[in-house]
Amino acid sequence: xxxxxxxxxxxxxxxxxxxxxxxxxxxxxxxxxxxxxxxxxxxxxxxxxxxxxxxxxxxxxxxxxxxxxxxxxxxxxxxxxxxxxxxxxxxxxxxxxxxxxxxxxxxxxxxxxxxxxxxxxxxxxxxxxxxxxxxxxxxxxxxxxxxxxxxxxxxxxxxxxxxxxxxxxxxxxxxxxxxxxxxxxxxxxxxxxxxxxxxxxxx
Length: 203
Hints:
Order of helices and strands: HHEHEHEHEEHHH
Low-confidence stretches: 79-90
Number of strands: 5
Strand order of the largest sheet: 2-3-4-1-5
Mean pLDDT: 83
Helix content: 40-55%
């Protein structure tokens, strides 16, 4: 239960992968997981920064837990990838059949590293689930995510279900517009707004 003095937009509630709020117009996480298994256990989620790719992939892995012996996660960020060589990337996944490797941020790798990663997983019959800002050729697209204000509203409504957590609709609109549809940045904006409310009521 959320405390009265707790900010619903705190990182613990909004961090990537914590929870995926399904848009009203999607086919659902379960159907994506079934499609991933049916189409050769290889696929990618594509979309711009902060649109929910990581959260969707983590939700999918919860549905895929019984289908694989082991699920390994590799998170790659631009500021931290320089120490990786292609042969190291290719060796990070499991021993083969019944394993799933989830790579978040694959576009950060060089073309050679991506080729090694995909090729090695296929050779070892290891499942591969990717997130990327740009389409990776040769990997089936499971879902293309595009930000929308209606989905951002759904996320905010989900986070503010407590009777103590209220936010003005104008603030939600401003958070979305000022951050060009980046959900993550928009929620950070609302965190600051809500924190000011807390300080005003407790100060």
